[in-house]
Amino acid sequence: MKTVLHQLKQYKRDAWCCIGFTALEVVMEILLPFVTARIIDEGLQAANLGVVYRYGAVMVVMALVSLGCGALAGKCAASASSGLAANLRESIYAQIQTFSFSNIDKFSVPGLVTRMTTDITNVQNAFMMVIRVAVRSPLTLVFSYAMCLYISPRLSAMFFIAVVFLVAVIGSIMVVTLRIFNEVFQKYDDLNASVQENISAIRVVKAFVREKYEDDKFSKASRNLYRLFVKAEGLLAFNNPAMMVAVYFCIISVSWLGAQYIVGGSMTTGDLTSLFSYIMALLMSLMMLSMVVVMISMSLASIRRISEVLTETPDLANPADPVTHVADGSIDFDHVNFSYKHGSGKNALTDIDLHIRSGETIGVIGGTGSGKSSLVNLICRLYDVDEGTVKVGGVDVRRYDMEVLRNQVSVVLQKNTLFSGTILDNLRWGKPDATDEECIAACKAACADEFIDRMPDGYQTRIERGGANVSGGQKQRLCIARALLKRPKVLILDDSTSAVDTATDAKIRAAFEKTIPGTTKIIIAQRISSVQNADRILVLDGGRIDAFDTHENLLKTNAIYQEIYESQVKGGGDFDQPA
Predict the structure, then answer these.
(1) Could you tell me if 310 and 95 are in contact, meaning their C-beta atoms sit under 8 angstroms apart?
(2) Matching PROSITE patterns, A to Z (predicted)?
(3) pLDDT for position 343
(4) Per-residue pLDDT tens for 553-567?
(5) Strand, coil or helix: what is 520?
């Protein structure tokens, strides 16, 4: 709770103003029945019109003050709650930017989306109710009961019994529903995951005619959410019957006993009238409190989930005195062990001892799950090793400022991503101040100019979200061009030419020698043709180094490489080469 409320920041003043205006509004409303009693007893029953006019004018002023305070309180509440929600979204988004891949894996993308949308909306609504209703209702409750005690201490005992009864019922409901709402938001994550997965892969769904399967999967997630909400709302439905029991108990008790007190002369008609007003105000405040309880029950689960993100410590952080210069593109793995879940004992990489000279071109090949992507993720410090060290430019990557390191280690990942905007906008992710000429040169090196020149708007062509309007091969070439613009000391291509033909692949690799001759190039590929001209080739198997040598030597000495070569070259050739 403290973590979330800390995000009020500049909106604290609005929150306190709302509380102040609400308190003043309640005071005016509580005094109105008291003034009404004076009009009845001293004005109407005594036939004194002067008293009626005088107290009537006071009531008008009090009503206008109450109205004005209510309007100002509402405005301040809206400003404070909306400001809190805005600050929470900005803080969570900024926090996510500091997360490593392992932190993202912990929460999942749909889970983070739910926290930034549904959870924050719940907190926003609950906060508005807390600073308005949760302030107004207790004050109304206390002041109304104080006035009841002033008018008739004996009748006030009836209200106390009703309050104790309602607190017991509402408290019991809140304890149970809080557990249910915790589960509800986990189901929201499942629902968002289903929607996100389906929409992002809609082409695959339609290609395999799996619409019904996806509908069924979504319906299952939706029904789970429906079932939990029905269960929670079914319990909350007991609020109203409990409230009605308390209301009718108080009305009947006050009517029965109040009539006897009037007949006995111990209470005036005006006092009984104002007492009924205070009864309704008191019980209405309890009813509003029950609504607040529902909102708080929902928001507590949301607050916990939001706090988990805000208090999460990024697995990766800059050292106290970071190195801010990468000397060269040399890479050294010194007996590295790595697992995605530290301490699990399930290593993705085991005892990797590898030394790459600056400017070398290194091919990496191996079967699925052999640890190729895991290996290169450690070079740019997307993850930290469990044991051993990874050095770039002779310095442990954990000693670098991460921004400096990643600017010098450019990665084209296996999953290529383009963003909404023009082709130039996407290219300048690699270098924000790149000129048009630099962008065009990078595209020529990546063989992307071939298709860009055929587009009606050329480099001003707009890319749809996720690169939906370009092919897989075109997307890969744009991502390679984007990486080349950085002029890095290390360039990593993680199977990033898999969707282009071998002729284009060869042109791209030849362009590397001209455009970035001093850059260390690591090429992960499934095709022998993509790596056979590399200075050395690394063969991985089961997260271990099986061999590290030239193409010619591997063909003579390494069984795995021989098998891959035989299957691809002698078994029919690459997918776009003649047998």
Answers:
(1) yes
(2) ABC_TM1F, ABC_TRANSPORTER_1, ABC_TRANSPORTER_2
(3) 66
(4) 999 999 989 888 888
(5) strand
Alpha-carbon distance of 519 to 509, in angstroms, equals: 12
Identify the H or E element spanning 491.
strand 490-494
d(CA 395, CA 371): 23
Residue with the two structure tokens 């052999």 = 370
Residues contacting 6, CB < 8 A, separation 6+: none
Determine the number of helices (DSSP H) and then strands (DSSP E) in the chain.
21, 12
The average confidence (pLDDT) of the chain is: 83
DSSP string, 16-72: HHHHHHHHHHHHHHHHHHHHHHHIIIIIITTT-HHHHHHHHHHHHHHHHHHHHHHHH
Question: If 0-12 CB within 10 Å is exposed, 13-18 middle and 19+ buried, where does residue 291 land?
Answer: middle
The residue type found at 537 is I
Plot region of 359 (φ>0 → left; ψ -120 to 50 → alpha; else → beta): left
How confident is the model over 359-404, as pLDDT tens digits? Answer: 999 999 988 888 888 899 899 888 889 899 999 999 999 999 988 9
Give DSSP secondary structure letters for 214-236.
Answer: HHHHHHHHHHHHHHHHHHHHHHH
Q: Is residue 115 scored above 80 in pLDDT?
A: yes
What are the φ/ψ torsions at residue 545 (nearest 5 degrees)?
-80, 120
Residue type, 11: Y
Tokens of 9: 């920041």
User: What are the distances in angstroms from CA 579 to CA 502, 558, 560?
Assistant: 13, 24, 21
Nearest to 156 by CA among 143, 138, 170: 143
Distance CA 4, CA 478 (A): 41
Helix pair angle (269-310, 153-200), 10° resolution: 30
423-460 pLDDT, tens digit each: 999 899 888 888 989 999 999 988 888 889 888 888 89
- Are 176 and 213 a contacting pair, CB within 8 Å? no
DSSP state of 554: H
What secondary structure letter does DSSP report for 539?
Answer: E
Confidence tier at 472 by pLDDT (50, 70, 90)? confident
Q: Is 305 exposed, middle or buried (0-12, 13-18, 19+ CB in 10 A)?
A: buried
Burial of 223 (0-12, 13-18, 19+ CB in 10 A): exposed
pLDDT at 90: 92
- H or E segment and range at residue 560: helix 559-565
3-state secondary structure of 380: coil
- pLDDT bucket at 575, cuts 50 / 70 / 90: very low
Summarize pLDDT for 52-93 with one digit per residue, the tens. 888 888 889 988 998 999 899 989 999 999 999 999 999 999
d(CA 112, CA 306): 9
- Give SS3 for 544: strand
- Measured in whole angstroms, the distance separating CA 22 from the mean position of its chain's CA atoms is 33
Angle between helices 153-200 and 211-236 (to 10 degrees): 170
User: Which residue's structure tokens are 């009537």?
Assistant: 56
The one-character DSSP state at 418 is: -
